[in-house]
Write a structure and sequence with these properties.
single chain; 75% helix; mainly alpha
Length: 148
């Protein structure tokens, strides 16, 4: 018998086990959900940082709250910690906590998109885009946090 026919007779393809079992497949799927949530959150963080820079350049950031560079560095550190917690730690509670925080942002986004005041500094399109990004983020975090 050749090596390849022995592998087939023993239920292996190319010398590797073919079946990992349902638990291993489930763990792999859950890990994939956390990786996807981590990368989506990374993109959300990049959008937040870009929005802060754009608002700062247009004079929409209150200088009383401190130097903009400090806030950008703090935001980058938070994004890095959340990314690490989702990618490496696969923390269910982190995914659920970030989900809850982002869900709390929706009412202000809806108000800005559909009921802006007469002195609104940002266009409705800004808030509509934010709603789409946040809802996708909620979906990705929910998949990881509750294994949906």
């Amino acid at each position: 018998m050749t090596d390849s026919s022995q592998d087939l007779a023993q239920g292996r393809a190319g010398g590797q086990e073919q079946s990992q079992g349902p638990d291993a497949r489930s763990r792999d799927a859950r890990a994939r959900k956390f990786r996807q949530a981590a990368f989506w959150y990374l993109h959300v963080g990049l959008l937040y940082e870009g929005a802060v820079v754009a608002m700062w350049r247009n004079g929409l950031v209150n200088p009383i709250r401190g130097p903009i560079v400090l806030w950008l560095l703090l935001g980058a550190a938070i994004v890095a910690l959340v990314f690490w917690g989702l990618w490496f730690r696969r923390s269910v509670w982190l995914a659920r906590g970030i989900w809850a925080l982002h869900a709390l942002r929706l009412p202000s986004m809806i108000e800005g998109a559909f009921m802006p005041g007469p002195d609104a500094a940002l266009p409705e399109a800004f808030y509509l885009t934010a709603i789409v990004v946040i809802v996708i983020n909620l979906w990705m975090l929910a998949r990881a946090g509750w294994d949906l």
